[in-house]
Specification:
alpha+beta, single chain, about 25% helix, Jelly Rolls, four-stranded antiparallel sheet, about 325 residues, globular, 2 domains, eight-stranded antiparallel sheet
């Protein structure tokens, strides 16, 4: 009986809510449900073979400024718009090009410009070596001529180096009217602005292809700022969102506590892993993990001065990982 319980826990934690999985090992095959992807060039279906190259694990698909993929519309019928949707994948910008360095990381809108109904995530060039990632959502009111409509809610959700692999996670929690992103050790979250009609946004997501690398309803480059190339790997979609794991949260908290009190120091990569585990699994687990959380807080307070004792502001992602864990 004990082994059956362990097996059930493993299965439920791995597959709960998961609809599709693409590993991009020389194909666009969905390994779970058969919702295979389609490769495009300039927005049009292409019979040429995409470039697959070394990804985060195994191979990934390389998409230049003109290339993209989309998933079948039938997949959208499996998404639970009353509860939540979660997107998880790895990506790496390999080059930003000579202009704005834009690339559609995730397209969930009606497309063709950023004021069109829906949600989209893209990159913007900062300089030749760095870029930011923008999450945008809107109900399309600006394009429809609504007076004084701001266009959309544009949110900077992380800044990264060219050539850096980014673990991307987006949760659209429609039950709580809230979005959350985790990109490596940068976490952002906010409620959808009540100004925008969320029902219209959800309908746009449902009525359009899920794309990576390209806008919906655009058959040519929308403007010459689309110059980035992206490598994508390990795409998974959950609906409702995946279960958080209490065991991973408490393991990470205990490791962080032992690091802070000096009994078992961690490497930088271990620190980043445990911070990500905490970010991924904190939601819904506070009560059960409360003693471990306060044990970490006490260890931190015993060793460090108050974070903002001097009254200065700081960029969250630039703080020491021990401090980000707070």
């Amino acid at each position: 009986m004990k082994y059956i319980l362990i097996l059930l826990l493993l299965v439920s934690s791995t597959f709960y809510g998961q609809i599709v999985s693409y590993d991009f090992e020389n194909n666009l095959t969905d390994n779970i449900s058969g919702f295979d992807g389609t490769y495009t060039v300039n927005g049009n279906i292409s019979n040429t073979t995409p470039v697959y190259t070394t990804g985060q694990s195994g191979l990934g698909i390389l998409l230049d400024p003109t290339q993209g993929i989309y998933l079948p519309m039938s997949l959208n019928n499996q998404l639970d718009f009353d509860k939540s949707i979660e997107f998880v994948f790895d990506f790496k910008i390999t080059t930003l090009g000579s202009d704005d360095g834009r690339k559609e990381i995730l397209e969930l809108s009606a497309g063709w410009n950023d004021n069109t109904t829906g949600i989209n995530v893209w990159t913007d060039k900062i300089d030749d070596n760095n870029y930011k990632v923008i999450l945008n959502y809107t109900d399309g009111g600006y394009n429809e001529g609504v007076e004084n409509h701001p266009g959309g809610s544009r949110n900077n959700i992380g800044t990264f180096d060219v050539g850096e692999f980014v673990k991307f996670r987006l949760i659209l929690d429609f039950e709580k009217n809230k979005w959350t992103t985790i990109l490596n050790n940068t976490s952002s979250s906010a409620y959808f602005d009540n100004y925008y009609n969320l029902d219209k946004i959800k309908q746009a997501v449902k009525d359009n292809y899920i794309r990576i690398g390209w806008l919906n309803n655009s058959s040519s480059l929308p403007y010459n700022g689309f110059t980035s190339t992206v490598l994508v790997d390990n795409l998974k979609i959950y609906s409702p969102k995946s279960n958080t794991l209490l065991s991973e949260l408490t393991t990470a908290l205990n490791a962080m506590t032992n690091h802070v009190n000096g009994s078992s120091p961690l490497t930088e990569s271990q620190l980043q892993k445990y911070l990500t585990d905490i970010q991924l699994n904190y939601s819904g687990n506070f009560t059960d993990a409360k003693s471990d959380i306060f044990e970490f807080l006490n260890a931190y307070e015993d060793k460090y001065e108050p974070v903002f004792a001097d009254g200065n502001q700081a960029v969250f992602s630039e703080l020491p990982i021990e401090t980000q864990t707070l």
